[in-house]
Amino acid sequence: MQDRGKLFDDLAQLMTNAMGVAQGAKDEFETAISSWFDRWVAERNLVSRDEFEAVKLMAQKAREENEVLKTQIEALEAAATRKPAAKRRAAAKSQKS
């Protein structure tokens, strides 16, 4: 019976060691795949999500500023077209007097 207990202890120790080796191999595999993927992304000049979001916000802000400037330009153009008409009316009034 004593031999049987030792056999099970040895078998349990062997399985424990095998699980440790398997875990180490898994970790090494994950590290290798992660490194390979990082190199692959870098070689293709892909941007990270953070960089993409930053540029997206910059573009949105630029569009909003363009809309404001467009509105201001339209207001200035409208004012410029009204002034000559007002000047012509004032000149016409002064000629009548």
Descriptive terms for the model:
97 residues, mainly alpha, 2 domains, 2 helices, 93% helix, rod-shaped
Detailed description of the structure:
- With 97 residues, the chain is mostly helical.
- The chain has 2 domains: 1-46; 47-97.
- Helix content is 93%, strand content 0%.
- The longest helix has 48 residues, at 49-96.
- The mean pLDDT is 87.
Structural class by secondary-structure content: mainly alpha
Envelope shape: rod-shaped
Largest sheet, strands/sense/barrel: none
Q: Total domains, how many?
A: 2
Computed Rg: 39 Å
How much of the sequence lies in strands comes to under 5%
N to C succession of SSEs: HH
Mean pLDDT over all positions: 87
Please count the helical segments. 2
List how many beta strands DSSP finds: 0
The N- to C-terminal Cα distance equals 134 Å
- The residue fraction in helices comes out at over 70%
Q: Which regions have little confidence, pLDDT < 50, spanning 5+ residues?
A: none
Brief account:
By secondary structure, the protein is mostly helical. The chain is 93% helix and 0% strand.
Task: Summarize the topology.
Blueprint: H1 2-43, H2 49-96
